[in-house]
Amino acid sequence: MMGMSDCLFCNIMSGKIPGTIVHEDDGVVAFEDVNPQTPVHILIVPRRHIRSLNDLEEVDAGLIGRVHLVAKKIAREKGIAGSGYRLVCNCGPDAGQAVGHIHFHLIGGRPMSWPPG
After folding, report:
1. How far apart are CA 85 and CA 107, in angstroms?
2. What is the value of pTM for the model shown?
3. How far is 37 from 58, CA to CA, in rounded Å?
4. H or E stretch at 22
5. pLDDT digit string (tens) for 36-52?
């Protein structure tokens, strides 16, 4: 099992690995995805190492609310709030979760279809 010292996102948040950070507060950090799938593709990551959506507990409700408020703020700053955006959280390998630290993809800047891949 991967520890926090091996976690890509923990290492970006601590500055051990470079990342283009667009938001930082006590609870969450947001940075540009290194492999963007849309013109705007930001990862919003809780500072606390939580493996996936399945590992959330009641105490995390405020933290997840904070993620959504940060997404709204960044969408406005990036100019996509009016045209529309998605906030996506992949949970587990079949959903495409590639890093074992809960994270939310803020994507937008182009029309998207439904259903997704």
Report:
1. 6
2. 0.93
3. 32
4. strand 21-24
5. 999 999 999 999 999 99
Give me the active site residues, please: 103
Residue with tokens 């593709």: 41
Length of the chain: 117
Residue type, 71: A
Distances (CA, A) of 86 to 6, 25, 48, 80, 104: 29, 22, 23, 10, 10
Selected from 3.90.226.10, 2.60.40.1920, 3.40.50.12780, 3.30.428.10, the CATH number assigned to the domain covering 4-108 reads 3.30.428.10
Cα within 13 Å of Cα(55), Cβ side? 13
